[in-house]
Amino acid sequence: MPFGRITRVTFDPSRYDDMMAVAINIDFSGWSGLRALNVTRIAEDRLGIAAGYNDKAAADANAEKARAALGTMAEFMTEAPFVREGEIFWGFEGDQSLVPGYARHVFVDIDPAKYDALLSYCDTTTEKFNSVPGLRSVRLARIFENRIASVAFYDNKASADAGQVNMRAVMEGMAEFVTGEYNIREGEVILRHDYR
Hints:
The chain is an alpha+beta fold. The chain has seven helices and eight strands.
């Protein structure tokens, strides 16, 4: 089953350009099983790194490489990276000709007893996503027994904002499974590697 790893990096914003000069030179070519990696600036001092792997074994096999890659940027960080990971249990492929330019990360608590019903619900949402122009992909991962993460990639912020009507409809349909508030982080994709 596909596996996702989301890493939050907090850094000194006055050193952003220096950090990115290091980041763009990280070589991901030897990361077997890495399907996609997108870095989003989710706040002035924060990055969200979403990495998708073929499966958990591939993610684990690349864990040391990921630590080493983050280590090259350690001097710019103001706290240790914060990692969440889990199996990707649902996905939607939109227009694959689009280049991801904007990402929206959503984290929410769910009722674990209703997880199977949530899976069934997700399978009914394809039509709503089909009608979102500019949407490249959506992935849902279970990062704890009672928490899921969603990452949606759009071609730009305007498309992400326009797609909120459809996304709200999907979220409203999830109300019976959700037990907490939606925690949303979003921003421009500033670095990407795509091997699909």
